Automatic annotation (TrEMBL):
Catalysed conversion reaction: 1-(2-carboxyphenylamino)-1-deoxy-D-ribulose 5-phosphate + H(+) = (1S,2R)-1-C-(indol-3-yl)glycerol 3-phosphate + CO2 + H2O
Annotated GO biological process: L-tryptophan biosynthetic process
TM ranges: none
A GO molecular function held by the record: phosphoribosylanthranilate isomerase activity
EC number: 4.1.1.48
SUPFAM superfamilies in alphabetical order: Ribulose-phoshate binding barrel
Pathway(s) annotated for this protein in UniProt: Amino-acid biosynthesis; L-tryptophan biosynthesis; L-tryptophan from chorismate: step 4/5
Indole-3-glycerol phosphate synthase domain location: 4-254
Pfam family, one: IGPS
Protein name according to UniProt: indole-3-glycerol-phosphate synthase
Keywords in alphabetical order: Amino-acid biosynthesis, Aromatic amino acid biosynthesis, Decarboxylase, Lyase, Tryptophan biosynthesis
Keyword Amino-acid biosynthesis: yes
Keyword Coiled coil annotated: no
Lineage: Bacteria, Pseudomonadati, Verrucomicrobiota, Terrimicrobiia, Terrimicrobiales
Length: 271
């Protein structure tokens, strides 16, 4: 069993408990009262920028710095280079929740991406009900039919989808009209490099930066997003190949605080 297999098993258990607590009929009723969608693609178009992430922990390195997490939303709102905010809603492995996304939506002005292991239509509708503007769809979790079907449903609800891929084979699974396509450098299908829900590590051993070389093979009309492993020291290497970088751990673990780290990203992107 790969680490991804274990995560998906745990995520399926979480989803089952959520559906028992909040039935699909309730979710459908909530959608009518959901706040209007803010378009994520349009926010990323002007120049290279960041989608900045909020999570309590990561399976690859463990806990984030609590103060950074607490200050993240305000810091992201203030930063001119952050044009979208990614909210982890998986609980066991990332410490998030869909309720936390809703609390962020109450004050955030920038588009919110629901980042989770979306496996069922229920989660797409749930994202919209709780105020998400976009969802993550992972090609190493879903087959081509479900990728297309969930994309159609997301757009029907007014949202967009960021498609995440790791290989050429996964790129071939993407719908022809994909608007946002991301390459994740994290090797989720490996059985090593992860500390799990209870561990901690100073270094992230689950990355393969060579995956970013696949950028040229992404659909020509898509806005391209580099995901995982980015810091102020290496973000320049993906600028030009991608339209945005999805950044979380380097911001949320910086011992100096999240604002000094964001300042370094700003300096790097203005150099």
């Amino acid at each position: 069993m790969t680490f991804l297999d274990q995560i998906l098993k745990d995520a399926a258990d979480e989803l089952s408990a959520t559906k028992s607590r909040r039935p699909a009929t309730e979710i459908r009723g909530m959608i009518a009262d959901a706040p209007p969608v803010r378009p994520l693609p349009e926010s990323l178009e002007a120049s290279f920028c960041l989608i900045a992430e909020i999570k309590q922990r990561s399976p690859s390195v463990g806990p984030m710095r609590e103060q950074n997490v607490a200050e993240a939303l305000d810091a992201y709102e203030e930063s001119p280079i952050v044009r979208g905010i990614s909210i982890l809603t998986n609980n066991l492995h990332f410490g998030g929740s869909i309720e936390y996304l809703a609390s962020c939506r109450a004050t955030a002005t920038k588009p919110l991406l629901r980042k989770d292991f979306i496996m069922e239509e229920y989660q797409v509708r749930e994202a919209r009900a709780f105020g998400a503007d976009a969802i993550l769809l992972m090609a190493n979790v879903l087959d081509a039919a479900r990728l297309a079907g969930f994309y159609d449903l997301a757009r029907e609800l007014g949202m967009q989808a960021l498609f995440e891929v790791h290989t050429e084979e996964e790129i071939a699974m993407l719908p022809a009209d994909v608007r946002l396509a991301g390459i994740n450098s994290r090797k989720f299908k490996s059985d090593s490099g992860f500390v799990g829900a209870k561990g901690a590590s100073d270094k992230d051993f689950s990355l393969d930066y060579g995956a970013f070389e696949l950028a040229a093979k992404l659909p020509a009309g898509a806005l391209k997003v580099a995901e995982s492993g980015l810091s102020a020291t290496n973000v320049g290497s993906v600028r030009g190949k991608f339209h945005a970088g999805l950044v979380g751990t380097s911001l949320l673990r910086d011992p100096r605080g999240i604002r000094p780290c964001l300042g370094e990203f700003e300096d790097a992107l203005h150099a």
